[in-house]
Automatic annotation (TrEMBL):
Gene3D superfamilies named among the record's database cross-references: 3.10.450.50
Pfam families (alphabetical): SnoaL
Keyword Cytoplasm: no
Source species, domain of life: Bacteria
One BP term from GO: polyketide metabolic process
Keywords from the named record: Isomerase
Native source organism of the sequence: Streptomyces spectabilis
GO MF term set: isomerase activity
Protein name: Ketosteroid isomerase-like protein
Length: 153
């Protein structure tokens, strides 16, 4: 049996971003273990299982059809990898309840992934600035207006 080294996990994490940038969503399921848990901290959403993990990525690719992941740096420690990069794309599709704005998004992110010996992600923490997303897509005024009017009626 081949010994799994931390470098293999780091290489798999880089391949994960390449697959996203190539929009190969069918191939993404291979990166997720059957019991994977993906936590998107800014949205407070949890995705359990490989299909839910793929759906979490697909939502971004649908909203940003020209999406790509740039400048990725990966660090490893045991069976855990840490990655930082920038997600870029043009908002041309619905993003949850947010209609297309045709605006560019440039979003730095950080992720922590735990891997099993099958080189699949068992846990993925996704961290980015949610307010930056709102601001870049043109929703800052709406958010501030709602925030400033809370309790004034």
């Amino acid at each position: 049996m081949t010994e799994i080294t931390t470098e293999i996990y780091a290489a798999r994490h880089r391949m994960f971003y390449e697959t996203i940038s190539q929009h190969k969503t069918a191939a993404l399921a291979d990166f997720f273990a059957s019991d994977v848990l993906v936590i998107d901290y800014p949205s407070e959403m949890r995705f359990k299982g490989p299909q839910a993990g793929v759906a979490s990525v697909q939502a971004w690719l649908t909203a940003f059809p020209d999406a790509r992941v740039c400048g990725v740096r990966v660090w490893e420690s045991g069976d855990t990898t840490f990655a930082a990069g920038v997600f870029k794309g043009t908002h041309k599709g619905n993003f949850g309840v947010v209609p297309p704005s045709q605006r560019e998004l440039e979003l730095p992110f950080f992720e922590r992934a735990e891997w099993n010996t099958g080189q699949q992600i068992t846990h993925l923490d996704v961290i980015y600035d949610g307010l930056r997303v709102v601001h870049q897509l043109g929703g800052t005024d709406l958010v501030l207006t709602r925030w400033m009017t809370v309790g004034t009626s």
